[in-house]
Amino acid sequence: MTLERLREILARAAGKRIAVAGDLMLDEFVWGKVGRISPEAPVPVVEVTGESFYPGGAANVARNLREFTEGVSVIGTVGTDASGRQLLDLLRAQTIETGLVLVDPDFRTIVKTRIIARNQQVVRVDREEVRTPSEPQIVQLTESLRGILPSLDGFIFEDYGKGFLNSDLVRQISSQVRAAGKILTADPNPHHRVKWGEVTAVKPNRSEAMQAAGIPLTDPIDPPLQDMPLLTAGLRLLSSWETEMLLITLGEQGMLLLERGKPPHHIPTKARQVFDVSGAGDTAIALFTLALCCEASPIEAAEIANHASAVVVGKLGTATLTPAELIASFEDDGGA
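User: That's the sequence. What structure does it adopt?
Assistant: Structure tokens below.
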């Protein structure tokens, strides 16, 4: 892809509006240094030097989109606890629309705490509650969605397997979005089986694709276009999920794009250094979907997602990237 073509796609992005539905989380990063081993147990003692908080889970997808367009909405559940209030404050501070977020006093907001020392994650602490929306909540959400659907260009399901995206909610939202002729994508979770049914695209990673296809996990084969278990899984999922295309992220091998009736296409990774893979999949689905909404071809959208993911894995924490950083990545790669 030329830089001129990339800039053309990004120029269209500013006016797009995309909604993200899924498990909303608060990501907490505790930064510190390790100077000794605890006398109580063979574990490091981390002296805390600072803390950072970011929207996580499906909210991180919205945060990635917000770097490129002003029209971003989130749909999910938070509690009335301090973490829920903090998450909503963070989203609103970035002018991400939260009008469709359910605030449930009986729900404990999901928080993931990562303790980082010397640029390495020491431990992660999860505080979470797996709960599906009630029938009245599903009715409330689907009726509210009708109000904003005409103005949307795209919709993303971001499933972290915490229960928000149950089959009934996915089916009803999918029906509305497809009937409106909008781009609809999904980032699945292997431990939470949902029938995505006729979405535009689904973005699993390699192990998720193999598991969803019912194929035993094998070691990756290089080049990926000769990885027969992977290709078999991809073709099987294209059929069973009834999706137009499948974007499989392959870590250090890049990405594999499969489209109905076309040969598989491999996009090698652009990552030069990897500090933290937290949220890289969020970035990939966000930029892939946004590019499709901007009339990029599937291969162009996959190339954009691949470059975007390469940028964020070079940062610490749940990171995003700017349009300027994306353009710079393409420039460093010779504009292609």
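The chain has a mean pLDDT of 93.
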